[in-house]
Specification:
Layout: E1 2-7, H1 21-24, E2 27-31, E3 35-40, H2 55-66, E4 86-92, H3 95-106, E5 111-119, E6 126-135, E7 142-144, E8 153-164, E9 168-175, H4 182-189, E10 220-228, E11 234-239
Parallel strand pairs: 1-11, 4-10
Antiparallel strand pairs: 2-3, 3-4, 5-9, 5-10, 6-7, 6-8, 8-9, 10-11
């Protein structure tokens, strides 16, 4: 099995003059006949109803215009990022690719790497977090609960320190499972909330101020995504654009 790396490269045929305003703003990280990966900025939904802006809608418009598909565009969505999280989002351009990639997510063979600025001086250099999480009823939150409680699901994340500053630490996080708000909860429950994440206890803002809570940024970046290409015997690594706040 070979390995391919796609590190923030825009396809040569990407023509801004042909695109609508919404589609022209997307950062295409990887594209072929089966897959398209983009950099999702913070504050944008991965998927939403037709009247709400989303990455799904922008990518569909991009494909519709570039490939002259007026009748409509199929787009499979094997995973999503939370609204305040930036980074790599992968879409599938046909049903067979969608099925094969979805199976990889279900079987936990996809490698996901996140970067997160957390408050405080994190005491360890590397290790693993193991918790049991459960969604809190009638809220958009989840929390840590004892193992064995109804609805509890195990959450496993590997971590290592990338950079230390006086009052904050940059962590590289590798989730082995995909629970709701997993990284946000696991870091906050240890006393190191992700910067800007008021939902889980951060008292420090991140990025520009925002009037609405839904528009506030948090310091969490989906840095890399590695899958097996659905039609080629190779591992494909897609790397996000690195926002200024994460440059070290």
């Amino acid at each position: 099995m070979t390995e391919t790396s796609a590190q923030y490269r825009r396809p040569p045929s990407y023509n801004l003059h042909m695109m609508s305003e919404s589609a022209s703003t997307i950062d295409v990280l990887f594209e072929d006949h089966h897959l398209i990966a983009v950099h999702k900025p913070t504050g944008v939904l991965t998927q939403a109803p037709p009247q709400v802006p989303s990455m799904e809608a922008m990518v569909k418009e991009y494909i519709k215009v570039k490939y002259a598909k007026p009748a409509g565009v199929y787009l499979g969505i094997p995973h999503r990022l939370d609204r305040p999280v930036a980074g790599v989002v992968l879409f599938c351009r046909n049903t067979k690719a969608a099925q094969r990639v979805a199976e990889q997510f279900q079987q936990h063979t996809v490698e996901k790497v996140y970067w997160a600025w957390v408050a405080g001086n994190f005491p360890e250099e590397a290790g693993e977090w193991r918790d049991h999480l459960r969604k809190i009823a009638e809220t958009a939150k989840a929390g840590v609960v004892p193992a064995g409680e109804p609805g509890a699901k195990e959450a496993i994340t590997g971590f290592r320190v990338l950079c230390r500053r006086e009052t904050e630490t940059l962590l590289e996080l590798k989730p082995r499972t995909g629970r709701m708000h997993q990284l946000r909860i696991q870091s906050a429950s240890r006393g190191f909330p992700i910067l800007g994440d008021e939902l889980y206890g951060s008292d420090r803002p991140f990025g520009p101020a925002a009037e609405l809570p839904r528009d506030r940024l948090i310091a969490l970046l989906a840095r890399r995504l590695t899958i097996t290409h659905p039609f080629r015997d190779e591992r494909l690594t897609i790397e996000s654009r690195l926002p200024d706040a994460f440059v070290i």
